[in-house]
Amino acid sequence: MTTFDLADVRRFTADLDARMDQCDNGEELECANLDGTLRHYAVLCCEFCELARQWGRAIFYGQAAFDPEVEKLWLDEGMELFRRASGLWAYGQGMKGECFVLENGAALGSALWRLERLLSAWVTPKLAIAPLARHGVALTQTAKEEAQKRVDALAPLPTDWQPTDPRRRPLFRKLQKRRRP
Amino acid sequence: MAHGPPIPLTAVLIGLESNEFQAISGWPFADPFVKRLLQEDIPQRVQFGNCSIWTYRDPNGSLVGFGTLDVCGECGEFTGGNLHPYIPLLAINPTIKSRGYGTSIVHHLIDEAALLALSGLCHDVLFLDVYTTNEKAIRVYTGCGFATVSPEPIPDSQEGGKTYIVMAKRVSIAA
Question: What Å distances lie between residue B112 and A15, A116, A165, A172, B26, CA to CA?
Answer without folding.
Answer: 39, 26, 10, 10, 26
